[in-house]
Specification:
Length: 425
């Protein structure tokens, strides 16, 4: 059996994701005659790549994914998930590679051809590009603007670099070249709405679905048309008490900011180059998380980078924590959900994986050990961030207390998914 890896958010799992999984299996059949290709998905956990609290918890989203066609769903540790596109891609590729069973990486892109994306990946990694990029960043340009300008000089189409899924695809190709050259890339051209489009429909974006769910009275018939039946059922059952809204984290964030000085803020990942002073100045003048984000935005620091800072600040992740994670890569494979094929994959992974499988957090870290920052191993420290991120996401719920009643990493087990859930009517 061939094993295809996918790195995703599934926030939430929608018709576009279901289409991608069908397309993956069709391509594997065309290319290799493989009728039963298995899909291993690595997904962000409690916080997403752009810094938001995931709309549903990681177990619910993993359940959606397995019921939608994945065989096995693993969690990408927080220290890689809530990062730039480059670091998100590297973390996911390194985790999939460490399993020892993945032979293909599938990803979506606005581009229908792999060659332009591969050319962009090679151009970015060229020594001359990296040297000029460093110089431009030192002069105050944003990463995206500087990189786009350099690649245009090399004759690459700027439109290729302006689409979010193209950007991620390029980063996946760069990560494969650096960490997993034996894994074959498989491009699936995106269909339907773009990342930021807000209209619901058969191939609506995850952003459109999340925006509708924030309303007091969502358009449930339109949502049903935008989602697989099992995803729709889970979201309808979760509404509104179990759906996250990052705005609920604004007051905890203000409390954290007001009890820290500039020196301590500078130790937090992402709060360097004077951003700590800007944060102190803007925090008390803002009335919401969205307002604070916009007040922090500059030509060099886009909203996505600013939004990623807030979970790191609330969880206390420091520059040294992230640097250590980048040196080691993901140190474990946290199992969230699986089906019968996934069960067989887990048996295979136990024999081939370079990192341990985590099915019970308590076997590697307990709540008392988590309080001892200095005595923890690198694996335990990485895992501790995941557990705290789960609890922090609980604070973003409409009624978050008591925390003991919310999903908890120390007691939750992976979900075995056998059949679709019936939808409520």
């Amino acid at each position: 059996m061939r094993v295809v890896g996918i790195i995703a958010e599934y926030n939430p799992f929608h018709q576009g994701h279901a289409y991608q999984l069908r397309a993956v299996r069709e391509k594997m059949l065309q290319l290799y005659g493989e009728k039963d290709a298995a899909v291993v998905a690595v997904i962000s956990g409690s916080f997403t790549q752009r810094g938001g609290a995931a709309v549903l918890d990681k177990w619910q989203r993993a359940q959606m994914a397995v019921l939608g066609g994945c065989s096995l769903v693993l969690e990408l540790p927080f220290l890689f998930a809530c990062r730039s596109a480059q670091d998100f891609a590297r973390g996911g590729v390194r985790l999939l590679s460490s399993l020892g069973i993945v032979d293909t990486l599938a990803f979506g892109a606005e581009s229908s051809e792999l060659l332009p994306l591969a050319a962009a990946a090679r151009a970015i990694d060229a020594e001359a590009t990296q040297a000029e990029l460093h110089e431009r960043l030192q002069q105050g340009e944003s990463y995206a603007k500087a990189l786009t300008a350099i690649l245009q000089q090399n004759g690459l189409d700027e439109n290729v670099l302006r689409q979010p899924n193209n950007i991620l695809a390029i980063e996946y190709l760069r990560a494969l070249g650096a960490y997993a050259p034996d894994i074959t890339p498989l491009l699936i051209a995106r269909r339907g709405a773009g990342y930021h489009e807000t209209a619901l429909g058969p191939l609506a974006s995850a952003s459109a679905v999340r925006q509708e769910l924030q309303k007091d009275e969502p358009d449930w018939p339109a949502l049903r048309a935008s989602l697989p039946e099992t995803s729709f059922a889970l979201l309808q059952r979760a509404f509104p008490a179990d759906l996250a809204n990052a705005e609920h984290l604004f007051r905890p964030l203000l409390t954290k900011i007001l009890t820290m000085d500039s020196e301590n803020l500078r130790q937090i990942f992402g709060l360097q180059e004077g951003l700590e002073n800007r944060l102190l100045a803007k925090a008390c003048a803002s009335a919401s998380l969205a307002a604070l984000t916009q007040a922090m935005v500059t030509s060099r620091y886009p909203a996505s980078r600013i939004a990623r800072i807030f979970p790191h600040l609330l969880l206390g992740s420091r520059i040294e924590d992230v640097k250590r994670a980048d040196e080691t890569g993901p140190l474990y494979a946290r199992v969230l959900a699986f089906d019968e094929t996934g069960r067989r994959l887990l048996h295979a992974v136990k024999k081939t994986s370079a990192v341990p499988l985590v099915t019970k957090v308590s076997q590697f870290l307990d709540s008392k050990q988590r309080l001892q920052d200095k005595g923890l191993s690198p694996l335990q420290k990485m895992l501790a961030f995941d557990t705290r991120a789960t609890e922090l996401r609980s604070l973003s719920l409409p009624e978050p207390f008591p925390l003991q009643q919310q999903p908890n990493d120390f007691i939750a087990s992976p979900l075995f998914c056998r059949r679709p859930l019936p939808a409520e009517h």
